[in-house]
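Structure (tokenized):
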């Protein structure tokens, strides 16, 4: 009887997974995501489009805030290890060391996240989706946020950025990421800060491809960064891109 009950339970679970592919871990992330999105209403999709995502109980989606920071340690989430600012890490020219730093950061982040889950609510800055690293190219000190970057060299920025991503997300062959990295900000953004949501950064096609985009490409193609980096296309119809 016990064996029959077990078999029936397994059959029930299998049937449930086949009816809800987005819960089936044997499928690819793309397949699961496509199925899940197809089940969302327009209103539910809108509620999930901001950093503070609402719960969708019918589909088992819990409320979650995607905004957490970890530029040089878990930030804004109580006591945490504070490492040097990224511009200081860049001065080390030491990729293995930067990887080691962010492996420690993701270890600490996981602990803090599990502690938050035990309270029944994961608040802003308590998650494991980090808006890190900042791989903008630092050219103008008037920006005011150059210390968040790895300097003005595209190659070094790409190398250290990949070390950050790999340290945060953990081994590439792991079935579960330790945390999620997110390269920021807009690809050509490096000031001015006060009007960053409306400022139209215009650079030549050569500068765009040789200076500003290589690090983003490195992180996505070589370090498996989820393709959700913050970016913006030039409004070419308003200004001459060759200027």
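Design, position by position:
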């Amino acid at each position: 009887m016990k064996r029959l009950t077990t078999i029936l339970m397994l059959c029930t679970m299998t049937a449930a997974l086949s009816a809800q592919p987005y819960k089936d871990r044997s499928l690819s992330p793309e397949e699961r995501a496509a199925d899940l999105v197809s089940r969302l209403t327009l209103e539910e999709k809108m509620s999930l489009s901001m950093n503070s995502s609402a719960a969708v109980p019918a589909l088992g989606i819990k409320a979650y805030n995607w905004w957490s920071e970890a530029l040089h340690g878990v930030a804004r989430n109580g006591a945490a290890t504070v490492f040097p600012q990224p511009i200081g890490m860049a001065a080390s020219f030491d990729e293995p060391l930067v990887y080691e730093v962010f492996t420690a950061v993701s270890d600490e982040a996981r602990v803090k996240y599990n502690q938050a889950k035990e309270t029944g609510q994961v608040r802003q800055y308590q998650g494991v989706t980090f808006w890190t690293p900042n791989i903008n190219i630092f050219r103008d000190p008037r920006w005011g946020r150059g210390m968040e970057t790895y300097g003005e060299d595209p190659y070094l920025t790409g190398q250290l950025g990949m070390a950050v991503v790999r340290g945060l997300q953990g081994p590439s062959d792991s079935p579960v990421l330790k945390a999620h990295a997110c390269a920021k900000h807009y690809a050509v953004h490096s000031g001015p800060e006060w009007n960053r949501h409306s400022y139209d950064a215009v650079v030549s096609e050569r500068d765009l491809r040789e200076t500003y985009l290589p690090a983003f490409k490195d992180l996505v193609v070589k370090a498996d960064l989820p393709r959700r980096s913050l970016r913006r296309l030039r409004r070419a119809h308003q200004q001459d891109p060759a200027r």
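Reviewer-requested clarification: The domain at 53-222 is CATH 3.20.20.300 (TIM Barrel). Confidence is low (pLDDT under 50) at residues 229-243.
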